[in-house]
Structure formats: structure tokens, C-alpha cells
Backbone:
């Protein structure tokens, strides 16, 4: 493809004084490539058929053939060749006669986009040589038979990720003969965590199987006292998902030449996963009304969302943090970047990045909702992506935080990351991107400040341990939870933790010193709060316990405020107010029970069935205030899933989903969803209503395609009840 091929194109281009060719954002657009590229005038007698001519190209692209097997791409439901960069793959070319190396010359050309250029990595000519150099483009003949040659082709370890068009070019004395455009030879090139020279190389095979090849994951939610989990179908190998993920990079207008760099890809993807400021994939909604869309809790996986976006090009409604993180994880694994979904319990959403969340109390000790702007999310999900960071000093590669949930703007767009986990742990928050924000999410302190009538602020309590006290992900090779808090922070109160904090402050994280506030807490009385296991629709009790460690008698005026909250810690309504006076005898403990009735909360409940209790107690003898807050999740009933008989690949199978309504009311507008990655595309069914205590049964017949261990995931959604899930591991046998 010499410069002459695109002159016709160039003449038609709008004149632009800034660049010779327009920006190259689209992997899908193509240029026209001439089948005969003449060097000059062609003599009359010239007949292309006299020369070596390509009759057929064979790509070995079936799932069971060598390329997809060796490149770990056999799971993709995609008929084209999919390989990973920096690793050799094979193709066979059939000519019209035997190939004679002494006189014949041919080469391969890989092209991407509408304006292929060699210096941008979008036009790649590959001459046939004798040796393949690791990590560099090249080709060599490994077998010749009759009219066929078999080539081993090596791609560069820094090559662009995406879909290339392949041409074979043959040299004749009068010009270059090329094969016709044939989409069957299109080749997808992906990141390669198996290749030591790739920026995303990961050395542990079990980790690669989990973080790249596993198409189902677990989302941990609930709260730190009551961790709950549900399955999520990533479905990165399902039909059209790879094309949908490549389209996201077009949508984000990432220049083709930048698409070999995982740092750039993560940064633009964290913006395009949410719909703020760029009409990205998912519209977030945290207000409990989901008209004209799907409630975030109803999704069972990423596939429906990505395919809907790919076809409509409009944001899909609606998502919350685990939906953004689930779809982001699919995107990363699909392109070959190792990725995992993280949950941070008690996550700080700090509006002014000063490492403190302020909860203001009035002079009686009740929380003042007017003044309190900060919130503690019960949990927040983000992703980690694995890569080297050549843009940072040595030691900050490995896991990087990326977050697609729109919270704060970064460089003018709603995006976050990649931020090195190692840099966050050590307080080196000066290293790009967005490390101070993530540092605050896991390290802030909660200040309870009483505002007196004259406006004076008195800090009554500082809670240094609540925020980011548990950070988790799914274990490698199983469904259990792994605590990775130590990867983000040193042990609370250790010397290393203090040093990391001082480093973060030195690098510009704002932390107010305690000198400018008066703070003398009541140290000889401790207050604790426990809740009985709470089941949706039932009464339960909470217990407030005081431990008086002094020799004095005290009385404590105690307030309990029960609030229905979004999982982001933002209050929807207060449903319980209770105050009492507690007598605290010297050197003893005393407990007080408060009953929470289902009639008090059922009418107001939000979809995650989560409560937030504030307890404040004023010690009347000293005027000091004790304060604490706790989140409580109700236990929501699950869906039961069972299968009938044996499941055999290619034979009809039957699955039954059951649910019994536990509420003292009829459920209206009930929607069930069922999916099984690699086995069953999402099926939806609407049920009008389920009366109280009655059971719904739904039978689905389907044909499982591939043998192996698979997972069925179901969800139920209705006006009064959401976040109802069920799952079942199934073994599909060989026919």
C-alpha cells in the first residue's frame, strides 16, 4: 500500500489546516484497496493470470483448530480468527501454481480503519523471512506442499487491539497484485496476558483463567456487618460482545494508534461506561424510580446491556455501581486485560476530598440533615485491571483501580483511574490518575460535630476505623470472598499506616489537623449497637449497650433514629424515632432493646432493603455526646432454581424457577429474568401479580450447547420487592 493508493481519497477530503488526514477513530470504517497497483503504464500484453496468484487463504479459525486453541480464544462465539498479540499464529495460502522462492515475491498486509498508515500501526506490511523475532511483526514459511504454503505469523507485543483486514500482495514487474477484500479473513488481535513481553502479562495460570477466561463472577454487596453475594454473568465470549467492546473505543473517540496501550484504554473506558457527558453505555439512577428502563437490581449480567447499546447507540437505563463495574469487567476481560470486581464496604463519598466526612448534630445530639452533606456508601464496587505502568516509577504496576460509576469529574469528564493500588497503599497519591479520590474512599475519618446555638462547632467523636474497613473480591477458582483490605492500606494504627498518611498529605491530600477543633471525647463510657437478624416483612429488635468503666453513676439521654436509605447512605425517610433515658451504674454494662415493627418500615422500603441507624447519647453529668451509626440489611428471600433430569449438550433441557411471596401484600408487575453464560441467552417473563404466601413456578426449555460446568442466574423484580436472586451450578455432559 504505497502512498499513491489513497490519492483519490485525499482529493475528496475536506481541507484542514491542522492535520493531513482526519482523525482515525473508527475500527469499522474501511478504505478501498486496489487489486492492481500499477507502477506506471501497463504494457498491452500484460495478463495478471501469468503471475503467481492467490486462490484461497485458510485461517485455521475454528474453535478446535490450532490458532484459537493456542491463543486461548476458542470460547469466543465468533466465526473469525481471534489471536493474542506477541504470539505466533498460522495461515495457509493456496496459489494457482507452486510457489518458487527464487523468483516469486509475496507479502501480507494488515490494515485497520479508513486511513491506514505504517507509522501509526494501522498499516502493517509483513515480508516473509527465515526467522521470527519475539515481539516483532514477521512471517516465515513452515510448510510447502503442491500449490500451498503454510506460514507462521508473529504479531508485535505492542500492536493495536482490534479488527484488522488481511490482504496478500504479490509482486509483478508492472505492479502489485492484491487479493480481493474478503471479510472472512478479518483477524481480531487482543491483549496477551500469556506473553511475557505484553504490558498485561500475568504469570500465574490459575489467575489468568480466573481474571481473563472466567465469564461468571460474584458481586459482594450488603454491608460490612452482613456481607451478601450474587452472581453476575460477564459473558465476554458471547456473540457480538467483542464487536460491541471495540465499538465502545470508537464511541470514546480513542485514536486507533492509542489502542495498544491498556492505560489509555482503561482511562477512556471508565468514561464511556457511564452516560454522563458522552452518551456512554449506562445511565445511572439512584432515586428508586426506573420508568422507561430496567431497575439496576433486575440485570443478571452484562450481555443484554452491551448488545442493547451496540444496536441502539443510546444509553441503557438504568445502572448503579455494581452494574457499571460488571459491564466494565466484561469489556476488560473481552479485550484480554486481566480484571476483577472489587467491593469496598463503608466507602466514603467525600465531596471536598479532605479525608473527613462530617456528620453534624444539633445541640440535643440528633443528626442535622440540613447541614450534613457527606455520605457513607454501604458498599461501592469498582474494578481492578492488571498492567505495567511505564508512565510511573518502578513498583507501581500490577493492579490498577478503574471505576466507571460517575461520582466526580476527572480532567473534565466523569471517569476514574487507572490508579495504582500500590501507590494508594503507600500514600503516593501524586501518581496519575485520580489516586487522591480513591485514597479518600478507603481512608477517610468520620467526624461527629455538634453545632451549638451560637454556631460554635464541637467535635464530639471521631471514628477512624469505619471507612474502608473491608475491601473484598471473589477468590481465584471459587465463589468465596477474599479480604484484600491489606492491599489498599496498612493495619489501622500501625507505624506504616501513619507514614502512608503523612506521605498522602505531603502530596496534597487535604487533612485538617485537630489543633483547629476542640475535641475531648468521653472515654470512660462505651456505647455499642447490635441488631437481631432481620427478615423482610418481619419485626426485629435492636439492642443498645452501654459500658460504664468509671466509678461514677451517669444518666444518658439516648436518641435512636432509624432511616430507610439508598445503599449510597443517602436518606430517603426516617421511619423510627425513639428516645429514652438510661441509668449507667458504675463499672457495669446495661442493655436496652428497641423493637422495630414491619408495619413501620414496609411502606417506605427501597430496593436494597437497607436501614441506617444513628444512635446518639448525651451523658447529662458531663454534657459529652457518644455517637455511632450502623447499616442493617434485611434478609430477602431467594429464587429456587432446579433442573429436570440430566443436562446433555445439544439435547433439550428443562429448568424450573420458583418463588414464594413472603410479604403480607400482593406483588404487582413481577418480571423474571434467567440466563446462563455459554448456555442460555437471557429470557424474560412478565407475571401480573403474586398474592401473599402463594408460589410462582416458571419452566423454561432450552438447548445447552457446550459441555462443562456452567451457572444459571435468575432475578425477580416487582414494584414492592427487588434484589431477589437465585443461582444454580449445573454440569452439562458430553452427548
Residues:
Amino acid at each position: 500500500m504505497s502512498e499513491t493508493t489513497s490519492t483519490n481519497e485525499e482529493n475528496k477530503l475536506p481541507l484542514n489546516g491542522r492535520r493531513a488526514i482526519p482523525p482515525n477513530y473508527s475500527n469499522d470504517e474501511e478504505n478501498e484497496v486496489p487489486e492492481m497497483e500499477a507502477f506506471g503504464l501497463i504494457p498491452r500484453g500484460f495478463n495478471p493470470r501469468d503471475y503467481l496468484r492467490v486462490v484461497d487463504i485458510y485461517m485455521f479459525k475454528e474453535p478446535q483448530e490450532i490458532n484459537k486453541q493456542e491463543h486461548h480464544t476458542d470460547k469466543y462465539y465468533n466465526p473469525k480468527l481471534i489471536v493474542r498479540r506477541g504470539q505466533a499464529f498460522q495461515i495457509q495460502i493456496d496459489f494457482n501454481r507452486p510457489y518458487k522462492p527464487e523468483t516469486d515475491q509475496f507479502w501480507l498486509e494488515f490494515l485497520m480503519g479508513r486511513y491506514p498508515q505504517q507509522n501509526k500501526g494501522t498499516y502493517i506490511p509483513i515480508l516473509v523471512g527465515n526467522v521470527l523475532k519475539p515481539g516483532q511483526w514477521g512471517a516465515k514459511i513452515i510448510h510447502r506442499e503442491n500449490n500451498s504454503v503454510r506460514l507462521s505469523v508473529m504479531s508485535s507485543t505492542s500492536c493495536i487491539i482490534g479488527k484488522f483486514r488481511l490482504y496478500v500482495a504479490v509482486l509483478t514487474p508492472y505492479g502489485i497484485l492484491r487479493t480481493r477484500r474478503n471479510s472472512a479473513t478479518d483477524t481480531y488481535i487482543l491483549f496477551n496476558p500469556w506473553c511475557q513481553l505484553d504490558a498485561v502479562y500475568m504469570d500465574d495460570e490459575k489467575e489468568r483463567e480466573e481474571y481473563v477466561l472466567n465469564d461468571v463472577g460474584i458481586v459482594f454487596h450488603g454491608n460490612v456487618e452482613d456481607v451478601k453475594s450474587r452472581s453476575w454473568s460477564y459473558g465476554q465470549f458471547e456473540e457480538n460482545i467483542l464487536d460491541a467492546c471495540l465499538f465502545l473505543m470508537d464511541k470514546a473517540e480513542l485514536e486507533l494508534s492509542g489502542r495498544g496501550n491498556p492505560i489509555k484504554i482503561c482511562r477512556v473506558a471508565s468514561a464511556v461506561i457511564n452516560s454522563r457527558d458522552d452518551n456512554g453505555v449506562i445511565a445511572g439512577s439512584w432515586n428508586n424510580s426506573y420508568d422507561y428502563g430496567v431497575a439496576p437490581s433486575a440485570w443478571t449480567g452484562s450481555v443484554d446491556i452491551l448488545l442493547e447499546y451496540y444496536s441502539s447507540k443510546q444509553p441503557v437505563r438504568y445502572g448503579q455501581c455494581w452494574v457499571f463495574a460488571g459491564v466494565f469487567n466484561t469489556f476488560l476481560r473481552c479485550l484480554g486485560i486481566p480484571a476483577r470486581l472489587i467491593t469496598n464496604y463503608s466507602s466514603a463519598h467525600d465531596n471536598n476530598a479532605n479525608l473527613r466526612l462530617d456528620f453534624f448534630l444539633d445541640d440535643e445530639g440528633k443528626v442535622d440533615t440540613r447541614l450534613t452533606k457527606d455520605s457513607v456508601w454501604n458498599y461501592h464496587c469498582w474494578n481492578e485491571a492488571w498492567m505495567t505502568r511505564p508512565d510511573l516509577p518502578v513498583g507501581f504496576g500490577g493492579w490498577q483501580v478503574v471505576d466507571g460509576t460517575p461520582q466526580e469529574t476527572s480532567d473534565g469528564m466523569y471517569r476514574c483511574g487507572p490508579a495504582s493500588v500500590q501507590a494508594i497503599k503507600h500514600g503516593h497519591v501524586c501518581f496519575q490518575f485520580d489516586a487522591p479520590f480513591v485514597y479518600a474512599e478507603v481512608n477517610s475519618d468520620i467526624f461527629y460535630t455538634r453545632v451549638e446555638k451560637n454556631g460554635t462547632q464541637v467535635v464530639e467523636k471521631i471514628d477512624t476505623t469505619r471507612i474502608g474497613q473491608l475491601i473484598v473480591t471473589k477468590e481465584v477458582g471459587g465463589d468465596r470472598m477474599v479480604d484484600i483490605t491489606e492491599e489498599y492500606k496498612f493495619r489501622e494504627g500501625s507505624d506504616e499506616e501513619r507514614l502512608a498518611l503523612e506521605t498522602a498529605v505531603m502530596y496534597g491530600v487535604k487533612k485538617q489537623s485537630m489543633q483547629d477543633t476542640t475535641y475531648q471525647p468521653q472515654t470512660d463510657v462505651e456505647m455499642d449497637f447490635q441488631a437481631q437478624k432481620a427478615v423482610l416483612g418481619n419485626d426485629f429488635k435492636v439492642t443498645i449497650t452501654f459500658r460504664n468503666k468509671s466509678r461514677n453513676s451517669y444518666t444518658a439521654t439516648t436518641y435512636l433514629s432509624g432511616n430507610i436509605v439508598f445503599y449510597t447512605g443517602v436518606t430517603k425517610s426516617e421511619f423510627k424515632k425513639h428516645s429514652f433515658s438510661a441509668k449507667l451504674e458504675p463499672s457495669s454494662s446495661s442493655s436496652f432493646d428497641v423493637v422495630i415493627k414491619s408495619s413501620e418500615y414496609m411502606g417506605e422500603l427501597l430496593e436494597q432493603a437497607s436501614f441506617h441507624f444513628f444512635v446518639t447519647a448525651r451523658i447529662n453529668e458531663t454534657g459529652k455526646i457518644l455517637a455511632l451509626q450502623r447499616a442493617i440489611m434485611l434478609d430477602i428471600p431467594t429464587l429456587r432454581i432446579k433442573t429436570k433430569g440430566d443436562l446433555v449438550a445439544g439435547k433439550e433441557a428443562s429448568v424450573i424457577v420458583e418463588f414464594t411471596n413472603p410479604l403480607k401484600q400482593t406483588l404487582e408487575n413481577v418480571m423474571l429474568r434467567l440466563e446462563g453464560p455459554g448456555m442460555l441467552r437471557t429470557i424474560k417473563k412478565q407475571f401480573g401479580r403474586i398474592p401473599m404466601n402463594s408460589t410462582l413456578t416458571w419452566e423454561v426449555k432450552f438447548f445447552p450447547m457446550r459441555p462443562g460446568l456452567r451457572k444459571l442466574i435468575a432475578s425477580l423484580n416487582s414494584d414492592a420487592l427487588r434484589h431477589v436472586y437465585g443461582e444454580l451450578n449445573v454440569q452439562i455432559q458430553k452427548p
